[in-house]
C-alpha cells in the first residue's frame, strides 16, 4: 500500500502525462497556418502535422493495451512519457515539414503509452474505496487542457514562434525519474508478443488513414490503392484475432449491442470535433485575417463549455437515460456546426463565440453519458478492455476526421473549411443516430 505522500506524487506524474498528451492535440491546430508559411507548404500537407500524431497514437493503442500485463504498467508509462518529451524536442528543431511529421509520429507513440498505462495505473495507486476519486482526476486532466489549450497556444504564439509550443513541454520530462522513484511495482504476467496482429493492426489503420489523407494532395490511384489495402489488412487483422487465444480486439464486448453503439457514437463524434478543430484556424487566419492569438481565444469557448457541461451531464446521467442525453448533445453539436456554415461574411467576435459555445455544450452533453454507457455495458471484469476501446474510439475518430480535412482541403479549394464543417455536422448526426439506437435495445 502506498503512503499518501507517494500516492499524491505518483498521481501528479500520471495527470501530468495525460494532460500533456491532451494538450498536444489542443495547441498545435492553432499554429498550422504559421507552420504552413514557415515551410512554404500547402494547407493539405501541413494538416499531416496533426494527422501523424493521431494516426500513430491510434495504431499503437491496441498493441500497448495488450502488452501492459507483460511489460508492466510502470515501465510502459515511464517509457511513454520519456518518448513523448524527447519527440517534442525533435518537433521543435525539425528543419523540414517531413521531419516535423516524423517527430509527431514518434510523439503519438508516447501519447498512446501514456494514455493507456496512465489510466490503468489509477487502480494500482488507489485502494478500491478511492478509485472513483482517481478516475475523476483523470477526467479533469483530459478536459482542462482541451479547454485552456487554445488560450495557451495563443499566449505562446503572441510572444514566440511555433516551435515553442513543443519546447514548452520539454521541462516536464523531469516527471519521468520522479515517477520511477515513487510509483509502486506492478505484477507482470508473461504474455507472448503478437507480432502478426501488431503488424496487421498498423497496416490496416496506417494505410487507410494515409490513403484518405493523401487523396486530395497526390495521385488519386495511389491513394485509393492505399485505402483498399488498408481495408484488406483490416479484414486479415479481424480474421487473425478471431483465432488468437488472447486477442487485442474485445470480441466479447462487441457482442453487447449498447457497447458497440457507444463505440460508433464516440468515433463519429470525435471525427466531427476534429473536422472543426483543424479547419477553423484556417478560416480565422487565412480568410478573416485574424492573428494566431485572436484565433486561439475564439476557439476557446468550445472546449471551455465542454469542460463546464461535462460534469453537469454526469449528474444528469444518474437521473436520465445516458442515450437520451448523448443524442440531445450531438443534436446541439450538429446545430452549432450548421450555424457556423452560415457565419456572416464579416462576422463580429460574438457571432463566432456563441456558435462555438453551443458546439461545446453539445459535445459536453455527449461525452460523459456516452463514456458511462460504454464503460458500464459489459461486466466489471472487462473494464480494462472497455477502457482501451474507449481510447481507441476517440483516436480513430480523430484520425479519420483529420485525414478527411486533408482530403477536403485538397479537393475543395477555397470552400474547404465550409465543406469540413458540413462533414462535421453529418458525423455529429450519424453519432446521434447511433446513440438513439440504444433506446431500442
From TrEMBL:
PROSITE patterns: MFS. It is found in: Membrane. It comes from the Bacteria. Pfam families: MFS_1. The chain crosses the membrane at residues 50-68, 75-95, 101-122, 134-158, 164-183, 195-216, 222-238, 259-284, 296-313, 325-346, 352-370, 391-410, 416-440. Its main location: membrane. Residues 1-26 form the signal peptide. Residues 10-441 form the Major facilitator superfamily (MFS) profile domain. It comes from Bradyrhizobium brasilense. This is MFS transporter. Keywords: Membrane, Signal, Transmembrane, Transmembrane helix, Transport. SUPFAM superfamilies: MFS general substrate transporter. The keyword Membrane applies. It is a multi-pass membrane protein. InterPro entries: MFS (IPR011701), MFS_dom (IPR020846), MFS_trans_sf (IPR036259). The keyword Cytoplasm does not apply.
Amino acid at each position: 500500500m502506498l503512503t499518501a505522500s507517494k500516492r499524491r506524487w505518483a498521481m501528479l506524474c500520471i495527470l501530468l502525462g495525460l494532460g500533456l498528451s491532451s494538450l498536444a492535440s489542443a495547441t498545435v491546430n492553432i499554429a498550422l497556418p504559421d507552420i504552413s508559411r514557415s515551410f512554404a507548404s500547402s494547407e493539405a500537407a501541413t494538416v499531416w502535422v496533426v494527422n501523424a500524431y493521431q494516426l500513430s497514437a491510434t495504431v499503437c493503442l491496441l498493441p500497448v493495451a495488450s502488452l501492459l500485463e507483460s511489460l508492466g504498467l510502470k515501465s510502459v508509462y515511464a517509457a511513454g512519457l520519456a518518448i513523448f518529451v524527447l519527440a517534442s524536442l525533435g518537433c521543435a528543431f525539425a528543419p523540414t515539414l517531413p521531419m516535423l511529421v516524423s517527430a509527431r509520429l514518434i510523439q503519438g507513440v508516447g501519447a498512446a503509452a501514456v494514455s493507456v498505462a496512465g489510466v490503468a495505473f489509477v487502480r494500482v495507486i488507489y485502494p478500491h474505496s478511492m478509485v472513483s476519486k482517481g478516475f475523476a482526476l483523470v477526467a479533469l486532466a483530459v478536459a482542462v487542457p482541451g479547454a485552456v489549450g487554445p488560450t495557451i497556444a495563443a499566449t505562446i504564439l503572441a510572444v514566440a514562434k511555433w516551435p515553442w509550443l513543443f519546447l514548452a513541454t520539454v521541462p516536464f520530462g523531469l516527471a519521468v525519474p520522479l515517477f520511477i522513484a515513487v510509483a509502486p511495482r506492478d505484477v507482470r504476467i508473461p504474455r507472448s508478443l503478437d507480432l502478426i496482429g501488431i503488424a496487421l493492426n498498423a497496416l490496416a489503420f496506417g494505410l487507410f488513414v494515409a490513403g484518405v489523407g493523401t487523396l486530395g494532395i497526390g495521385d488519386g490511384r495511389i491513394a485509393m490503392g492505399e485505402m483498399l489495402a488498408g481495408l484488406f489488412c483490416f479484414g486479415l487483422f479481424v480474421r487473425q484475432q478471431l483465432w488468437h487465444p488472447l486477442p487485442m480486439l474485445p470480441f466479447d464486448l462487441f457482442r453487447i449491442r449498447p457497447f458497440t453503439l457507444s463505440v460508433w457514437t464516440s468515433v463519429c463524434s470525435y471525427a466531427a470535433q476534429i473536422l472543426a478543430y483543424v479547419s477553423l484556424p484556417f478560416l480565422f487566419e487565412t480568410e478573416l485575417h485574424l492573428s494566431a492569438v485572436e484565433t486561439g481565444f475564439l476557439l476557446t469557448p468550445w472546449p471551455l463549455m465542454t469542460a463546464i457541461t461535462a460534469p453537469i451531464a454526469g449528474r444528469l446521467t444518474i437521473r436520465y437515460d445516458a442515450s437520451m442525453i448523448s443524442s440531445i448533445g450531438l443534436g446541439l453539436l450538429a446545430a452549432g456546426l450548421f450555424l457556423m456554415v452560415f457565419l456572416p461574411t464579416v462576422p463580429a467576435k460574438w457571432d463566432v463565440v456563441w456558435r462555438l459555445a453551443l458546439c461545446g455544450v453539445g459535445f459536453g452533453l455527449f461525452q460523459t453519458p456516452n463514456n458511462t454507457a460504454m464503460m458500464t455495458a459489459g461486466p466489471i471484469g472487462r473494464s480494462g478492455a472497455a477502457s482501451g476501446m474507449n481510447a481507441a474510439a476517440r483516436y480513430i475518430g480523430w484520425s479519420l476526421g483529420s485525414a478527411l480535412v486533408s482530403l477536403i482541403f485538397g479537393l475543395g479549394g477555397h470552400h474547404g473549411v465550409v465543406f469540413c464543417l458540413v462533414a462535421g455536422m453529418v458525423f455529429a448526426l450519424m453519432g446521434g443516430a447511433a446513440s438513439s439506437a440504444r433506446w431500442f435495445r
